């Protein structure tokens, strides 16, 4: 029996689902990249939560509500995709819902508020998303290679979403900008771009 067949048998069997070794080896890279991204931003940028003194908790709660939803959902989706035989039809609808809520709120926000756009700190935000997203995506890729994904493009897409969400989670406390338009353009679009890169690269990075 080949190594691939052994992995498939272990992951598809009931005994494989109880193997905590796979769970730890899968989770560890995800935890490491999240902690590393938060630490890196904290070391490089000053003024964490400075925007809270100006605008209150609302903006950071919206940003973290969106990004942490993806940070929590994406590993569950990756774990499901990495274990053959698991139903995965729920994954894309579940991961689409946070974006649908954001763009729905965007329409409402534009009709009520006139926030300055793009603000003064957008280059820093875009740089943080551009640098941190691929690093977190790499961590998700390492995590997936512990398992046995068969839908490689879908797994790559979810890994990309995780990478972008980690970057947003790490940078959000240092972002003073407000408004759903800013969130949609400088957070959601980079996350979706990273997901697109993951979709394209998934078959190359995740094949056995």
Question: Key terms for this structure?
Answer:
single chain; 208 residues; mainly alpha; 0% strand; DUF1109 domain-containing protein
Explained architecture:
The chain is mostly helical and 208 residues long. It has one domain. 77% of the residues lie in helices and 0% in strands. The chain has nine helices and no strands. Helix 3 packs antiparallel against helix 7, helix 7 packs across helix 8 and helix 7 (122-144) packs parallel to helix 9 (180-205). The chain crosses the membrane at residues 26-55, 61-82, 89-108, 128-148, 155-174, 180-202. It comes from Aurantiacibacter atlanticus. InterPro entries: NrsF (IPR009495). Keywords: Membrane, Transmembrane, Transmembrane helix.
Q: How many independent structural domains? A: 1
Total count of strands: 0
Low-confidence stretches: 14-18
By helix and strand content, what is the structural category? mainly alpha
- Terminus-to-terminus distance: 15 Å
- Helical content stands at over 70%
Tell me about the largest β-sheet.
none
Overall morphology = globular
Counting DSSP H or I runs of 4 or more residues, the number of helices is 9
Average pLDDT taken over every residue: 84
Strand content: under 5%
Oligomer: single chain
What's the alpha carbon Rg, rounded to whole Å? 18 Å
